[in-house]
Every structure is written in C-alpha cells, then in structure tokens.
Amino acid sequence: MKLKIITLAMALVMPSFASANLDFDLTDMVPARPGTSVENADNVVMKGDAVAGTDASQAVAVAHQALIENDEDGIKMIQVGSGTGILSIGSVSYTSYDNINATLLSKRGAYNQAYLVAKKQLIENMKGVEHQCSNLVSVSMDVIDTGVEGVANTQTNQAEACKESVSGSLAGFVTFDVFDDLESKTVRVSLISTPKTRQQISKNTGAIAVTTEPNSIFKQVVNDIRGGVLPPVGAKVLTHAETGEVIVMGYGSAIIRQNRNKSVANKLRGAAKSQSQTRARSALLATMQGEKVYWQGSFDEKQMESAQQFQYDDPYMKDPQQVKVLEEDREMFLNQMKISDDYSTLAKGKLPAGVSVKSFTSEDGYWQYSVAVYSPSLEATARQANKEMQGGSTLKGSSTASSKIKAVGGVNENSANPQGASGKVSTTEEL
Questions:
Q1: Are 192 and 424 contacting, i.e. CB atoms less than 8 angstroms apart?
Q2: Whose C-alpha in 164, 216, 260, 336 is 20 to 30 A from the C-alpha of 316?
Q3: Residue 125 pLDDT more than 80?
C-alpha cells in the first residue's frame, strides 16, 4: 500500500514523467562516493523517500547520493516511466587489529551485517513492521512530620520497552554496489530491486530450449567479473549479449586466514574456498527462489530520579519513628538503556541441475571469492548428461613448545587494513 501511495503521489506531482516510455537502462550511472556530487540532476525531484525523474540514470544517482550524504541507512523509491525501483543501503563499521585475520574477519562480518540490514529494509518497506510499546511512569512520595520538623523523600521511576519485528519473503533484488571506506572503517552494501530484476527472476525457472553454449556463458561471466567488482555477498542478473538468455549469479566469499605454517595455511585456504562456494550457492538459491528474512529489534529503558531527606534505620520495617535525618538532601539520577537487533535469513531448497561454481582469489591473497552460475542452457546440458549416464583420516600433531592464546586486546587503528571490495556490482543497464 505504501508503494502504491508513493507511486501515485509522484505521478501527480510530475505527470510528464509517468507518461515517459523509459526503462531502468542505466548504462552511465556511477554509484555515489563520499565527497562526490551528482551532476545534471535538474530533471529529478526528491520528496521524502521518493525520487522521480525523466532520466532513470539521474534518478538512481540522486537517490544513492542522498542516502550517502545523510550518512544513514535507509531506502529510496525511484519512480520513472517503467515503474518503481527500490534502493536500500546498509552500512556497518568494523575494527582493525594487530592480527590481519581478525581485521579481515571483522570486515567480512561488517559486509554480511550491512547486507542483512539492507534486506531487512526492503522487507520493512514492502511488508510493514509489527510494533509493540509499553510506557510506565511511577511517582512516589514518603513524607514524615513531627512536632519539631518535617522531611520527605520523592522518587520517580520510568520504564519504556518497545519491540518491533519484520518478516517476509524476498526475491528479485540484486547487489548494486559495495564500498569499503578505509578512513572511517565502514562498509556499505547497496541493494536494488527494479521492475526488470523482478521480471527476470520470476521468468528464470526451469530448463528451457536455448542455444547458448556453456563456454560462451562462462566467458561472459568471467569478463563481467573482470570488468566490475566481485562483491563479498549478494547476487546479480546478467543477460547474454547475443541470445538474451538470463544468467543468475550468486556471490560468496571467505577470508583466507594467514598462518606461519605452510601446511596449515594451505588447509585454511581450502576451508575458505569451501566456505565461499557454500555461501555462493546460498545466495543463488535465495535470489532465484526467495528467502525468508526476519528481524526483531527492541529497546528497554529505565530511569530513576529521587530526592532524599531521611533514611530508615531498618529499610525493611520502614518505621517512621526510627529514621535518620540527612544533613544535606541526597539527590540521585540513574538511567539505563538496552538495545538489541536480531537479524536472520533462511534460504532452503534444492538448486536446479547445471549450477556451476567458479572460485577466484583476490590479488592481495586475503579473500577467496566464489560465484555460483545458473542459466537454462547449463541446466539443459546437465539434464541431458544425466539422461545419458542413466542409459549407459584423522591427523595427529606432535607436541611442541606452546603459549596461551591472547584473546584480549589487539585493537590497532594503524594496523594493516587491505582495501575491501568497493565498486558497482550490477551494471546499470542490467537494472
């Protein structure tokens, strides 16, 4: 309902935009970066979370930069002639340590959390939020008067507790941009859902008769990766240049832990490859089939203010004849706030036949990337091969000198911090 209202409102504000025959064909659009500016945005109007324009490229650029400049997570609705797109940005900070493994793990964890934040915001916009709040204020006064003097104690207690939750199925979105800001040690993940991406995903089910050669598919996938950026998380949709066949790619990554022992280092590299491949398949499944997204956030705040002029000798008896008058009023203020955010996603199902996983190592050797590729051509080839086929130790280490592992400390603002994935993931013509 919210989406329809915003779309209608923008159409009323600028009827000429709604009548334009445009698509989300955003070939020249460049993601916003801190300190940059979007030029030639005269034909774009922004009102609240909605952006509308005659040029889709400018509209997305303005929406992206508006979120960056405000230094906040959130969404923007992008309205052009072909329909409404939704841009969602999530950002999370990380910490650098003396141990490069810890720095990279913190960074990848930040990418993953930012990815979840962006997905949560998409569901929140589409499905709404379940909300529950309670607010309690308790005021008390204890006054004692004698024939000689009078004293009083006052106390105000406040308790506020709120819970919100979001849940729903999400599909038809792709990773638009990722960025690692080394100065602020913050990573950002931008997701976008457009009429084109939603339509491509909905049609991309089951093997169909296509003529695209598998080698041609992988050649285009590799060229696309080399020409763009391989994100740590997410998925994208690629259209074959010659046949128009839709190719869906799921991305996965893992940190290649460094170790001074070569044998251990090789095993850690193998573990990273396995992790990244599993994550790539999960991202592919979530994009093609959809995934359940859950979020629950809450805060609990308690506050107490008091003014005390006397105290009981026995606080349990509270006998007014047994009190001690304080020489000076004792005033107290205490506030405690607890906040929690719980994110979870669930992708469950069976990937179609023909899914192929390709793995790559970053140039600096710290990241292991994998991309799981699906297309109807690959599925058809795999099913045909299956049809033809139907016809026809535990390692023990020696003890050495050792020391207790150090788990406390290590934070170092000036430690090695290799640049994380940063760049446009989906070319704008794919959106």
A1: no
A2: 336
A3: yes
- What are 302's two structure tokens? 């308690």
| Phi and psi angles of residue 42, each rounded to the nearest 5 degrees, phi first | -70, -25
- Residue 181, token pair as written in the block: 């800001």
pTM: 0.76
Task: Round the average pLDDT of the chain to a whole number and report it.
Answer: 80
Three-class DSSP category at 297: strand
Please give the structure tokens belonging to residue 398. Answer: 């020696």
In sequence order, the 6+-apart residues with CB closer than 8 A to the CB of 35 are none
Q: What is the 8-class DSSP label of residue 428?
A: G
**What mean pLDDT is predicted for residues 77-91?**
81
Query: Which run of H or E residues covers position 284?
Result: helix 262-289
What's the sign of the alpha-carbon dihedral 361, 367, 368, 369? Answer: negative
* 31, HSE (Cβ side, Cα atoms, 13 Å): 24
Half-sphere exposure of 114 (CA within 13 A, CB side): 29
DSSP state of 430: G
In the chain, what's the furthest Cα-to-Cα distance? 109
Name the amino acid, one letter, at 2. K
Choice between 172 and 249, residue whose per-residue pLDDT is larger: 249
Structure tokens at 310: 């006397």
